[in-house]
Amino acid sequence: MNVTIITAFPGYFRDFLSESIIGRAIRRGLIRVDIEDLREHGAGAYRQIDDYAFGGGGMVLMPEVLEKALESAERKKGSSFVVAPSPQGDLMSQEVVETLASRDHVVIICGHYEGIDERFIKKRVHRELSLGDFVLTGGEIPAMAIVDSMARLIPGVVGREASVSEDSFFRGMIDHPHYTRPSEWNGQETPETLLSGHGANIQMWRRSEAVERTIARRPELIGRANIRSYLPGGAYGVLVHFPVLDRNGEKTTSALTGLDLSDMGRSCRTYGIDRLLVTTPLASQRELVKTMARHWTEGAGGRVNPDRKEAFSRIKTFASLEGAEKWIAGREKTCPLLIGTTACDRGGAIHWLEAKRMALRAKRPLMFVFGTGSGLHDEVLSRCNIVLRPISGGFGDYNHLSVRTAAGIVFDRFFGWR
């Protein structure tokens, strides 16, 4: 991590760069942070760095002074990605921090007074960033926040690296509560689970608390969170071939296709779905699934394409949806939450974000049900605990995705990694 901070107040950073985690990381050579004093590039004998704003107002940092400071920084450390903290900037997020941390050289320009001349921003600043909807006296405090948040991503900076991946926002959720000694303080007890020494139960408690906090305090974060590790049970995909609809809206049994099995199996493997369950009442079709699976898991196909082997190893067949549901219930020791999908508008169907919150609150294994043919018959949808609203995009006047494409989209919405 290589950062240069351009500021008119270099003393601001003296303790920040020498103390605590950041100071240790700099001394160990894990990160490098240099300060470029803007006043050293000021104009005239008085090293002027700002002037009155045209049209009236306060003082504005001058573009030629900023240009000289930036050129000085780049002569020393090479070309840079330039960031300017500003109330008018994009809101900082974990994704932004990760993007900055991937750059070879980041220059942070600290505005002051009324800010930075707009011409310099348009010419040299790649991104303006804001910490939130409030105003500070200058860009120095945001610069510290940017450096600190980037540094935590560098291996070795944080002593326990697992802490980084468990922190708020890294997995999409905010963090769980923390407790230390004494176990009782001012009449408030530490949760018994944390005192039990049972690692699995502690992990489950922490994830459950993280879910509840996120839903209560920052529900908008659920949309970008991968909820797989926050579920107390498994997640399953079910590809139904009966009862489904034909093109005339009549009940029918559809034929399976190898492409559906292959692509959905790969989606399940990608998104951490435990199994892809294929249901069809036709014994010949179930045998065909097993034959294809053997080819890719035990035969020549698996040796040629190990990735396809992984995908097909997750497929299991059943004669009915009820049989698949019963198998999951037996495996999980509790009934799954059935989440149905449809390409047509249906009363009671809900948005996937709301479904995601409901799935987290239910604390049950999830069973995503997808229909072949022209979609699931009402007999299936009426049994589902949740029915998702149709996937829509573009102008919303065309909705004829293949089931394998729809499954990938649904899995990504629930289990995508931010």
Sheet with most strands: 6 strands, parallel
Compute the number of strand runs: 17
Percentage of residues in strands: 15-25%
Q: What global shape is seen?
A: elongated
> Count of helices?
16
What's the N-to-C terminus distance?
Answer: 23 Å
Write up this protein.
The protein has 418 residues and is of the alpha/beta class. 38% of the residues lie in helices and 17% in strands. It has a six-stranded parallel sheet with strand order 14-13-10-16-15-17, sandwiched between helices. The chain starts with a strand and ends with a helix.
Short structural description:
This protein is α/β, with parallel strands linked by helices and 418 residues long. The protein has 16 helices and 17 strands. The mean pLDDT is 95.
List the helices and strands and how they pair.
Blueprint: E1 2-7, H1 20-27, E2 32-37, E3 50-52, E4 59-61, H2 63-77, E5 81-91, H3 94-101, E6 106-109, H4 118-124, E7 127-130, H5 140-151, H6 162-166, E8 184-185, E9 188-189, H7 192-195, H8 199-217, E10 235-240, E11 244-245, E12 251-252, H9 258-271, E13 275-279, H10 283-297, H11 300-304, H12 306-312, E14 315-318, H13 321-332, E15 337-340, H14 352-362, E16 366-371, H15 378-381, E17 386-387, H16 403-415
